[in-house]
Amino acid sequence: MSTERVSVSQAPDLSDRAFTTWQDLLEERLGLQLPEQRRSFLKTSLSIRMRELGFDDYLDYYRYVRSGDAGLVEWNILIDRVTVQETRFFRDPAAFALTKDFLQRRAREGERPLSLWSVGCSTGEETYSLAMMTFDLLRKEGEQGVRRFGVTGTDVSRRALETARAGAYPSRRLENLDSRLVERFFTRENDRYRINDELKDRVCFTRLNVLELARSPMANLDLIYCQNVLIYFRKWRRKEIVTELARRLAPGGMLVLGLGEVVDWKMPELTRVPGERALAYLKHK
């Protein structure tokens, strides 16, 4: 039996008071809204880490997380346990098709290097998907054209970013990926596939909490891709985040969101891209 299974089975009850206390902290620091349905997930995530440290009370552990430098270090570890890191290559085909059409047009408009941003990139599959697609689009222009783009992936989880920077994935993660792309952009190493340097050189990853977008230097972006991130936030906060992202677009740039993730949001400088299968907005030139 694994250590994790033992930890879960022996986890103490998460009282209403403790659950509410942790809910408030997660929303305060990460903006995450954790509903009652996710209570068991929180209990499991906390109890495993508590067992590793020798805590048997959720509120004692909470006080430790909020205390001094040691608490700050622990909080950064805990983020990896409570954030969802589910992703895959080309996860939303409709959104990527829309993005491809946009980038084709954008690449013909000028000589400025294309700048793309993958928000909430998790372990990097989305970011590398954007890079593969852009590389293919620009390859016909020759090697100089291929150099004319960069993709930045940001996430709050340090552990997820470590995986993204390594760019090595088990074979099962590539099962639904076009074999042509696998052959073109990956090198097999035993049971893993590693992103080739020519693609990896076009990508960078950095840590960013979306609640701290105002501090981010990201600006003048041709494309901002933010999917499956906003669903964890309250509706009013989603609109705040989307508004801040929209401000980072270059004139004529496009913002891609998850379908249904924002409702009744408008910004004078942006126009929604027609279509029912993907949600995107274009910034006026």
In a nutshell, what does this entry contain?
The chain is of the alpha/beta class.
Question: Secondary structure elements and their pairing?
Answer:
Blueprint: H1 3-9, H2 16-30, H3 39-53, H4 58-65, H5 68-82, H6 93-109, E1 114-119, H7 125-139, H8 143-146, E2 149-155, H9 158-166, E3 168-170, H10 179-185, E4 186-189, E5 192-195, H11 197-200, E6 203-207, E7 221-226, H12 235-247, E8 249-257, E9 270-272, E10 279-283
Catalytic activity: L-glutamyl-[protein] + S-adenosyl-L-methionine = [protein]-L-glutamate 5-O-methyl ester + S-adenosyl-L-homocysteine
Protein name: protein-glutamate O-methyltransferase
EC number: 2.1.1.80
The level-1 CATH class of the largest domain: Alpha Beta
Q: Please state the average pLDDT score.
A: 90
User: What is the H level of CATH, i.e. the homologous superfamily of the largest domain?
Assistant: Vaccinia Virus protein VP39
Largest sheet, strands/sense/barrel:
7 strands, mixed
Query: Oligomer, anyone?
Result: single chain
CATH architecture assignment of the largest domain = 3-Layer(aba) Sandwich
Helix and strand run: HHHHHHEHHEHEHEEHEEHEEE
Overall geometry: globular
Beta-sheet strand percentage?
Answer: 15-25%
Query: What integer value in Å does the Rg equal?
Result: 20 Å
3D architecture notes:
With 285 residues, the chain is of the alpha/beta class. It has two domains: 3-82, Chemotaxis Receptor Methyltransferase Cher, domain 1, CATH 1.10.155; 93-283, 3-Layer(aba) Sandwich (Rossmann fold), CATH 3.40.50.150. 45% of the residues lie in helices and 18% in strands. It has twelve helices and ten strands. The protein has a seven-stranded mixed β-sheet. A three-stranded antiparallel β-sheet has the order 3-5-4. Helix 6 packs across helix 7. The radius of gyration is 20 Å and the shape is globular.
